[in-house]
Write a structure and sequence with these properties.
The protein has 434 residues and is α+β, with helices and mostly antiparallel strands. Helix content is 31%, strand content 27%. The strands form 7 sheets. Strands 3-9-10-16-13-12-11 form a 7-stranded mixed beta sheet, sandwiched between helices. A hairpin with a 2-residue loop joins strand 12 and strand 13. Helix 2 packs across helix 9. The chain is globular and about 75 Å long. The two termini are 23 Å apart. Bound molecules: adenosine-5'-triphosphate.
Length: 434
């Protein structure tokens, strides 16, 4: 059964209260479209990145990683088309002075004040401009990257030679991106600074069906990834682009969409980009980026299939999807791979040094093998409540009997079931569950 949807207010309140996500620079009134990750949030974010990296890179033999700079030669952005085309159409309301994305409007009325005083749409480039070096003029102007993909295209030749790979193979990258969004919003769904996880999967351009087969493969593979991490299948769907909605260089693009509290929206894009990007960089740089196959002596510019998603948007989906309000608690049913802490260890009481010491010893012994947290504040009920709210799969309580019997209570987040486990077997027991 699908869990009822939480509201965005419930998610943002929990995220702030429990140390997942805070508004950036809050003591100065905040800054729209920027967010900070708190102690619990960074753990979740690391796990989201790690789950992607492990499944997309570590466990495969046809993908290698790369990390390219956030600021690149401005020629990159001219060749890629971003200087000219990375724009959204925006309109202003002459009455209330608010600004909107033209494609988000449903009528000629201002969504804020209701007046019909919207300007004609104008193109607005989403890239953040900056200057490199001491001179602030046109020659030193460049941009913070709005995506990580271009770094992989311009390094394509160096990377495939270093990795000794031939198409089909991929370059994967996780890193920050910046877009001066006209209307950031819906919490971390659309922000101005965010993190991307992108795979550029290079395939021979001929036969064309082969590229389309790889596109379908990646759409299926990505959907499987979301399911494997526990996202409810009914909340995910594919949106296939066609006709005018398809970029001119793309022969197939599919978005994976999620049913957010504010409705269906993009979660991840899987685009078949053809040979567009490499061709643009060959033309603009004058450098040959083609792949040379030593065996067949074939020389070609590969086509590329790109699954791309935001770390923050993925994290938002995991939070929303895992959230459940029960009569006596709120619980985040996060997949154990994603849970910020795998196990919380409690001494039943704080005033019995033997119990506190044993609990601390157990917690320290588990640290090298799983992310742990020690909690001795409030009563055990309150501690369970706290751990349920941040999605900790297991809580271990050390009590009076532990001192005699060398065992502890292990409590399961989802079922609330409690079992007694010998301390000697605890690590093995927990590993078996996680
Ligand atoms: P939109 O049309 O909604 O602005 P887009 O189609 O330009 O988005 P892509 O360039 O395809 O987005 O970005 C790939 C992925 O990066 C998205 O599926 C999303 O997961 C993430 N993403 C894009 N923009 C943002 C943003 N402003 N904040 C957070 N994540 C983002």
């Amino acid at each position: 059964m699908t869990r009822p949807k939480p509201t965005m207010e419930e998610i943002t309140a929990l995220a702030k209260r429990r140390g997942f996500i805070f508004p950036s620079s809050e003591i100065y009134g905040g800054i729209n479209g920027f967010w900070d990750y708190g102690p619990v949030g960074v753990e979740l974010k690391r796990n989201v990145r790690e789950a992607w990296w492990r499944d997309m890179v570590t466990l495969r033999d046809d993908v290698v990683g790369i990390e390219t700079s956030l600021i690149m030669h401005p020629g990159v952005w001219r060749a890629s088309g971003h200087v000219e085309n990375f724009t959204d159409m925006m309109v202003d309301c002459k009455t209330c002075k608010k600004r909107f994305r033209a494609d988000h409007l449903t009528s000629d009325q201002c969504p804020s004040c209701g007046n019909r005083t919207l300007t004609e749409p104008r193109a607005f480039n989403l890239m953040f401009r900056t200057y490199v070096g001491a001179m602030e003029d046109a020659t030193s102007e460049t941009y913070l990257r709005p995506e990580t993909a271009q770094g992989m295209f311009v390094d394509f030749k160096l990377a495939y030679q270093a990795a000794r790979k031939k198409p089909p193979f991929g370059l994967a990258q996780i890193g920050k991106a910046f877009r001066n969004e006209i209307t950031p919003g819906n919490f971390i769904f659309r922000s101005r600074e965010f993190e991307l996880m992108e795979l550029e999967f290079f395939v021979p351009p001929e036969p064309a069906e082969e590229g389309l087969r790889w596109h379908r493969y990646w759409v299926d593979e990505r959907l499987r990834w979301w399911h494997s991490l526990g996202v409810q299948p009914e909340r995910l769907r594919r949106h296939e682009y066609s006709g005018a909605d398809l970029a001119h260089y793309s022969s197939a693009t599919t978005d994976l969409e999620y049913d957010y509290p504010f409705g269906w929206g993009e979660l991840e894009g899987i685009a078949h980009r053809g040979c567009y990007d490499l061709t643009q960089h060959v033309e603009a740089s004058g450098k040959d980026l083609s792949f040379f196959d030593e065996e067949s002596k074939a020389k070609y510019l590969p086509a590329v299939v790109e699954p791309a998603l935001g770390v923050d948007r993925a994290l938002l989906v995991f939070l929303i999807d895992a959230y459940e309000k029960e009569a006596d608690r709120t619980v985040l049913r996060l997949h154990p791979r994603l849970a910020p802490y795998k196990v919380a260890v409690f001494p039943l009481v704080r005033n019995k040094p033997d119990i506190v010491e044993l609990a601390a010893k157990i917690e320290r012994s588990l640290r090298p093998v799983m992310r742990t947290v020690f909690d001795d504040s409030g009563n055990v009920g309150k501690r369970y409540y706290r751990q349920d709210e941040i999605g900790t799969p297991y809580c271990v309580t050390v009590d009076y009997d532990s001192l005699q019997n060398n065992d502890v209570t292990v409590r399961d987040r989802d079922s609330k079931a409690q079992v007694r486990v010998s301390i000697d077997k605890l690590e093995e027991h927990l590993r078996g569950q996680l």
